[in-house]
Amino acid sequence: DGGITQSPKYLFRKEGQNVTLSCEQNLNHDAMYWYRQDPGQGLRLIYYSQIVNDFQKGDIAEGYSVSREKKESFPLTVTSAQKNPTAFYLCASSSGTGDGDTQYFGPGTRLTVL
Amino acid sequence: DAKTTQPPSMDCAEGRAANLPCNHSTISGNEYVYWYRQIHSQGPQYIIHGLKNNETNEMASLIITEDRKSSTLILPHATLRDTAVYYCIVRSPHTGNQFYFGTGTSLTVIP
Prior knowledge:
The structure holds 2 protein chains of 2 kinds.
Chain A: E1 4-7, E2 10-13, E3 19-25, E4 31-37, E5 43-51, E6 54-57, E7 64-66, E8 76-78, E9 87-94, E10 104-105, E11 109-113
Parallel strand pairs in A: 2-11
Antiparallel strand pairs in A: 1-3, 3-8, 4-5, 4-9, 5-6, 7-8, 9-10, 9-11
Chain B: E1 9-13, E2 18-23, E3 32-38, E4 45-50, E5 55-56, E6 61-64, E7 70-75, E8 84-91, E9 105-110
Parallel strand pairs in B: 1-9
Antiparallel strand pairs in B: 2-7, 3-4, 3-8, 5-6, 6-7, 8-9
């Protein structure tokens, strides 16, 4: 069953702790993305990666870090430097080529900072 | 990327066609029109996209006006499971170009 998986679905962390969100895809896509969504709002891009071992900052990268050691995986770390980390985090991937470069999204991880 | 304008909410009777409009008057020549939907607390689901021609797939039809300044997503026979927020996005097809999701149209399908 092909697709994008994110884990965990719900995550709680204490203030001041770093936390890592997982994103895995088996679609053989080159490009992967992390977005953040706040209640009633649209999505905002945190980081994206077009190829293994390379990634670029999006609009709201401060307080976040990523790695892309494998094509299938693009984990996101929310650091203690992120001022308002409570949000819904979405991972997406795309082939990077072809008609329109459609992005496909995972189910999301809801992070709550206590 | 061009900005889009959508009505904040719409209702549709179950079994009827749902027609969701989108204005994108500043769209440029290489920008595609995409539609996604998001059911509460889930990731956005891709529906359809197009450049100039009308498109149809198993989920919906996309009608793009000749001047490309507006489009309509048609769900031919709406069901209760189609209740969601629908996003219209225009975007040039380059990897790394993010999808700018606005606040979309909240569609409620009524029994």
